[in-house]
Amino acid sequence: MAGLYRYRVGDVLRVAGFKNKTPQFNFLRRKSVVLSIDSDKTDEVELQAAVSNAVNHLKPFGASLVEYTSRADTVSIPGHYVLYWELRAGDTTVPASVFEDCCLAVEESLNSVYRQGRVFDKSIGPLEIRVVEEGTFDKMMDYALSQGASINQYKAPRCVRHGPVVELLDGRVQSTFFSPRCPKWAPGNKQWDKDTGGI
């Protein structure tokens, strides 16, 4: 009803067909959402799949993921991925070991270049999950709206950069968990060569 000409939120769409002369779209991904520490590149589709795999560990406790975002922490050495999770609590408290399993599940779902950086090159540190207070993503939306974002087009960003949004997230962290060990990785013919920048 509002018209597609107003659709400018950084989404990549594919025309799936037409109804009469009106194009029908499928959402593919958000434009330029990439986490990277070294030679690794993680896009939104891969990150979403990895997070979906990890949250399965929460189901036995009745907990569920409300919303998430991420960032690449390049201040620490080695740099590492940070995921911010807002959860809906279940009947049972989720043990710290389960969140550590979630960290590892995310890492094991990421591409081989990421896992090589973690296991072999040691250029990427353990993935971190920061559980934030309930309502954090509502506060993030309020901030975006105060900066001129449209409430009709607002979506929680899947990747955030340094600045006020990261400060807001970090100020509402309740607990922090790291991957307890390196993900599985075995050298193969698709090993990334950091020196030549190729496979």
UniProtKB/TrEMBL annotation:
InterPro entries: GH3, GH3_C, GH3_M
Keywords assigned by UniProt, alphabetized: Ligase
Pfam families xrefs: GH3_C, GH3_M
Source superkingdom: Eukaryota
TM segment ranges: none
Species assigned in the record: Musa troglodytarum (fe'i banana)
GO molecular function: acid-amino acid ligase activity
Name used for this protein in its record: GH3 auxin-responsive promoter
Residue ranges of every copy of the GH3 middle domain listed in the record: 2-30
Entry's family note: Belongs to the IAA-amido conjugating enzyme family.
GO cellular component: cytoplasm
Annotated ranges, domain GH3 C-terminal: 46-162
